[in-house]
Amino acid sequence: MTDRPETDPAAGAPPRPPGRLYRAWDSDLAYAFRHSPVALVSAFVTLVLVLGAVLAPWIAPYDPFNPATLNLMNGFTPPGQTNAITGDTFLLGSDDQGRDVLSTILFGLRISLFVGVAAVLFALSLGVSLGLIAAYVGGWTETIIMRIADVQLTFPAILVAMLIFGVAKGITPVEYRDQVAIWTLILAIGLSDWVQFARVVRGATLVEKNKEYVQAARLIGRSPVAIMVRHILPNVLSPVLVIATISLALAIIAEATLSFLGVGAPPTEPSLGTLIRIGQGFLFSGEWWILFFPACTLLALALSVNLLGDWLRDALNPRLR
Amino acid sequence: MLSFILRRVLQSVLVLLVTGLVAFAMFRYVGDPVDTMLGQERTVADIERLRENLGLNDPFFVQYWDFLGRAVQGDFGISYRQGRPVGEIIAERLPATLELAAVSGVFALGFGIVLGIFTAIRRRGTAANVIMTLSLIGVSLPTFLIGILLIYVFSVELGWLPSYGRGEVTWVSGWPTGFLTSSGLSALILPAITLGLYQMTLIMRLVRSEMLEVLRTDYIRFARARGLRDRTVHFRHALKNTLVPVITVTGLQLGSIIAFAIITETVFQWPGVGLLFINAIQFVDIPVMAAYLMLISVMFVGINLVVDLLYVAIDPRLRAEGKAA
């Protein structure tokens, strides 16, 4: 990192302010990104998987959830081989009901990613707001919020998520359970994960709120909400970004775990975890591809997001520079 | 020192009361017990009488107090699904989980410490690098995939070890144990590795980084200067000082082992409380869920408390700080 070009803003303003895009490209973060093979590879894998998930309805070779297009005769076709009866070919094979494994993976990826991202966004908004409020308001509010956080932190997140899922399932009327299962899952994983955000934001806010710019904002009569959102929030967001990325990997694994255990995404909307659960049943009968490909996809997704998070943490850590 | 212990105990009691409240709220408000217990043919008078008998008309905190009182005696009501007392079902299932957790804890601790020392001493060696890389993958692999992988290799392909169940159990003074039969022992291996692998990598990385830190200190250099053998320096001087944080982390991980046992037990159909809990969620068996929550919170809070107190007992520096404060 010794040959890094001088981009320190304190070194004097450049003669002509360069464009936004150029500044982003020229930033320390982008430089570190371009020179880290791990970051490049994992970003590429993540991008491919996200694209596959987003474009699933258009690029999937079959529609795996339309009963009209399914043919039971296609069941258990090995990858790349032509089914002797129907003459159909499946790149990654087909499952017991004749569904194309590649298509179910693409749609499963869609659900896994959706649940993961939504849960992290939910946890992020909840945690950041509570952390900001706790630190800025202080007193009883802070004590209550942070005690709840401490109690919740005593238990592993996955256990909390399971409990919330179970209770939410109990509250939902039976006939709606499968329909809202995805949202229940998001709620459960999100609620199990907000503590991290709240603790980090609270810590950073405690430092920021005594700085002069906050006092100045208070003096000119801005409302507490405006000070929290417009003045403090932008200054405490950078650690939140790191936690969000690592949380995403954890949320994806949590979702897969819950679905694998049968307490997550319903069979009508299978996520990668549900697909692995289904595939496990065929482990002993030799249809390895029903399990193998969803498992690899999940692994690639979790690993690449995880590595991106690790890289981001190191890249944003000033002590490591 | 005494005030520290008191404060920690008080905190623990508070956490237990809060989780008890959550469990009670689940028990009381999720699903109507009257609905479940009375059939379709019922009158308003029937409902009222049952409500009165069950104490459902009492004030909230009276009910909560009753619930806690019964919970302390191991009475968690009747399972909706099995129609038997929840306390009885859990007591039946708990030995299986405890045995599994104990074996994987020993596995994680033993291999974690040995591999941690090895990778710290042979820092630049190929074997150490391979182990470190593998541990990175091990951390990213979800527990259930590790279980499936092990089943595939050792049960499906090699056919060496059973893939589900607990094998044959023998009863030793009211405790069903799998330790005494060969089928029980072989059934333990795969679940124990699955459950302990994550904690093992964690302990290994911790021991390694602590060891590297300690090996740089002056007293180690002095020990080397005295001409002590490498083995004496590593094991008698360095290892001792790496173990303090290891004990804390191990203690805290013990709780995680019990929680993650849920996943392992499902993969291997191990007849423990974790599997019971998952089935309870699937079938919305609220009394079982509430009881499991109480059980696990007692374990967690107890473990945390013991670890905190142990920490003070082991590290003289902390005791000195406690006195100064």
- Which stretches of chain A of 5+ consecutive residues score pLDDT under 50? 1-7
Number of helices of chain A: 13
Instruction: State the major sheet of chain A.
Output: none
As for the number of domains of chain A, it is 1
CATH topology of chain A: MetI-like fold
Number of helices of chain B: 13
What name does CATH use for the topology of the largest domain in chain B?
Answer: MetI-like fold
CATH architecture of chain A: Orthogonal Bundle
Find the structural class of chain A using helix and strand composition: mainly alpha
* Fraction of residues in H or I helices of chain B: over 70%
Our Rg estimate of chain A from Cα atoms comes to 24 Å
Largest protein-protein interface: A-B, 33 and 40 residues
Please write the string of helix (H) and strand (E) elements of chain B.
HHHHHHHEEHHHHHH
Structural features, described:
The complex is a heterodimer of chains A (321) and B (325). By secondary structure, chain A is an all-alpha fold. Chain A has one domain (35-63, 90-320): MetI-like (MetI-like fold, Orthogonal Bundle). In chain A, 67% of the residues lie in helices and 0% in strands. Chain A has 13 helices and no strands. The longest helix of chain A is centred in the middle third of the chain and has 37 residues, at 101-137. Chain A is globular. Chain A starts with 19 loop residues before the first helix and ends in a 5-residue tail after the last helix. By secondary structure, chain B is mainly alpha-helical. In chain B, helix 10 (230-268) packs parallel to helix 11. Chain B is globular and about 90 Å long. Chain B has helices at 2-29, 33-37, 44-54, 60-72, 86-121, 126-140, 143-157, 182-215, 218-225, 230-268, 273-282, 286-314, 316-324, and strands at residues 170-172, 175-177. Chain A: It holds the Pfam family OppC_N. Chain A: This is Glutathione transport system permease protein GsiD. Chain A: Keywords: Cell membrane, Membrane, Transmembrane, Transmembrane helix, Transport. Chain A: The chain crosses the membrane at residues 38-60, 111-137, 149-168, 180-201, 232-254, 288-312. Chain A: Residues 109-309 form the ABC transmembrane type-1 domain.
